[in-house]
Amino acid sequence: MRAVRRSVLLFLPALCVLTSCGVPATGVVEAGGPARGVVPTIRIYLVKGDALIGVPRPVAAPVDVESAVQELLQGPSEAERVKGVTTLLPLPGAPAPSDVPSPTALPPGSFMQAPQESARPSDLVKVTMRDDRVSIEMRTVEVELPDLATAQLICTAVAAQRVADPKAQPAPVTVTGPGGRRVEGTGARCPDL
Fold first, then answer.
1. Cis ω on the peptide bond leading into residue 24 (within 30° of 0)?
2. pLDDT tens digits, residue range 103-154?
3. I need a labelling partner for 1 at 20 to 30 A (CA). Which of 16, 165, 167, 184 fits?
4. 136: which strand partners?
């Protein structure tokens, strides 16, 4: 009993100190928007010099191959262009060149043009996903794409599959260009994968 009384006597002064520390009671404090989780990030593949480079892009969930390819077709940001990063893929609203020189002969931004409001990335490609294959068909491209441009599509598609389902082996990707030329890849040669 004496131990209980002693505990109460020690507890009361501590309680008084805590309640009289001068901090006023407050209600709910509004400070910004609601907490959010981690924003999904995909890796798209652009070109610097004559090599592919992986560039992270935040995207709206869910992550899938089609959204990754659509993001790729937006091209590099202004800051990336300043650093010499470009794309060998035609962009929405940009006219395709009549002949495609080697990637090293292309000046940065040679396929670049401000996208027209009526043009959308989905006008350029059709992405089809089946159980064991991803197909990307170039719709409005009239010239043969260089191998590095098809590698941009393949690597971006494989990277998106790995984000969407990290435990699964990515399906092979087939890019069909003008004239029916088909290029297949598995991402084995993609940097940063």
1. no
2. 444 444 444 333 334 445 567 789 998 878 999 999 877 778 899 999 999 9
3. 16
4. 127, 175
Name the helix (H) or strand (E) containing 100: none
Q: Output 178-186 pairs: Cβ under 8 A, ≥24 positions apart.
A: 178/138, 178/141, 178/142, 178/143, 178/144, 178/145, 179/144, 181/144, 183/147, 183/150, 183/154, 185/150, 185/151, 185/154, 185/155, 185/158, 186/158
Other beta carbons within 10 Å of 180 = 7
pTM comes to 0.69
Dihedral of CA atoms 173, 127, 64, 119 in degrees, nearest 10, equals 130
Domain locations along the chain: 41-96+120-185
